[in-house]
Amino acid sequence: MFTTKITSAFKAKGLQLFETEILTVPSIVGYDKQFRWSWAATQLNTFITVTDGGDELITPEILWRHQMAAYEFAKANYTGWPRGLQSGLASISIIISKNLTADAKAYCTELKAEKRLGGFTVPVLIDGNSGEVFRFKKKPYWGRIYYGFFGKMIDSITEGLA
Predict the structure, then answer these.
(1) pLDDT tens digits for 16-63?
(2) Is-contact 150 123, C-beta < 8 A?
(3) C-alpha angle with apex 146: 154 to 88, nearest 5 degrees?
(4) 128-146 pLDDT, tens digit each
């Protein structure tokens, strides 16, 4: 149900859609490419990967593995300028599950983002029971200019789930 709503939100935003498997689970990916002067004149390629984990227990380790697999998918499908040269790659990694640990929720809200050369990974959880979204609360120093965009993108595609 939540993946259907998110897919509709991807389409409404005009995002390019991919279907893939992340950690052997069918997943959907929305892709967005934008250039903004306010981002120090950089182009940002954003991949938003959504995986429905069903009832699987989600821990920080699972989140980290999902982030890395989603980032590898993003790298493999990236077609922009060379990363780091006025071009960035962002991978927003979303897992939906009915079984979330408190540590996993904190992992997302405290932003355990991975920094890569010209790239970012941002973890997000959605409670499969209530639709509550767990995402970063504060912008980190590294990549700060992009996190307002990331927050708005996450909020716009998860709006109305809770």
Answers:
(1) 999 999 999 999 999 999 888 887 888 889 999 999 999 999 999 999
(2) no
(3) 105
(4) 999 999 999 987 777 788 8
Which are the contacts of 72, defined by CB distance < 8 A and separation ≥ 6? none
Residue where the block lists tokens 């040269």: 85
Residue 83 clears pLDDT 90, i.e. is over it = no
Within 10 angstroms of residue 30's Cβ, the number of other Cβ atoms is 24
Model pTM score: 0.92
> Per the structure, how many domains does the chain have?
1
- Tokens 């709006």 appear where? 159
Q: Is the dihedral of CA 61, 65, 68, 70 positive or negative?
A: negative
| Residue ranges making up the domain that contains 130 | 2-158
Return d(Cα 52, Cα 104) in angstroms, integer: 15
Q: What is the DSSP secondary-structure string of 18-63?
A: EEEEETTEEEEEEEEEEEEGGGTSEEEEEEEEEEE-TTPEE-HHHH
**pLDDT value at 116 more than 70:** no
Q: What's the chain's Rg over C-alpha atoms?
A: 15
Q: Evaluate whether 93 touches 63 at the Cβ level (below 8 Å).
A: yes
What separation, in Å, do the N-terminal and C-terminal C-alpha atoms of the chain show? 12
